[in-house]
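Supplementary Note 3. Input sequence used for the single-chain structure prediction.
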Amino acid sequence: MGASLSNLTERSGSGTGGPGLGDIPESCVACVFLYLTPPEICNLARLNRAFRGAASSDSVWEAKLPPNYQDLLQKISPDAALQNLSKKDIFALLSRRILFDDATKEVWLDRVTGGVCISISAKCMSITGIEDRRYWSWIPTEESSFLICRFHVVAYLQQIWWFEVDGGVKLQFPAGAYCLLVRLHLGKFSKRLGRRVSNFEHTHGWDIKPVKFELSTSDGQQAICECCLDEPEKDDSFGNLRRGSWIEYEVGEFIVNNSDVETEIRFSMKQIDCTHSKGGLCVDSVSIIPSNLRERRKKL
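The predicted structure, written as discrete structure tokens, is reproduced below.
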């Protein structure tokens, strides 16, 4: 099949062979590319010169960029030099995870859908008692994957009576549905003999009362959910045990209707029942991603 495709690509209208892919005008190829995903465009760009030319067209890649890409470039760097990049290079730049706001937030585009995603580090949140080393400490982590943020540090709670974490972000989101996820880990993790291990010495109190998660937006949308974090007998939606695994807790969804204005999102997590202490919890980050991307993650 590969040889047949190669032959079809190389044929031209002259000679005995009939017309081939090389005879399709670049403008027509560009029109087709408007309906394909970025990975599909990059794969087809290897076929011939017309496909390569269409795959570099600004009109093709501007259609893949979100309407707020100029705002994202400004947040990453106010330097006007980025504005002079080709649309393909801008998409390539934004599809990498890029830190901003003193490396406490990162933004990226999903490489398939072009959807805008953002993560907020625990360093950027207001955490009750974070200054007191008796309760909280910052621990480094070198873990990374497309599901784990790359801030390289997480907040570890040893023990506290009043657990409260608040934060927020303001961004010009493209219109659509988004979900907010909180990434937590029961137990303190470390490496031993090159393997990842979890220590649950301080893990307690999360099975007595649920943690309350909340989100609100500047246009009045709200979502609330409650969850007991320590339920060893229950797996999460990916089949992982709650203890010793990073779990993304879905707080809720919100809708952006107007992509021309900034939307402010506030979020919090609380367990303020002071009848018992709780501890042994790592707080990594909060992520906001398009809802359709969340569904795709679940399927994967």
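Confidence is low (pLDDT under 50) at residues 1-10, 144-149. The helical segments are 2-10, 26-33, 38-44, 49-55, 58-64, 69-76, 87-94, 291-299.
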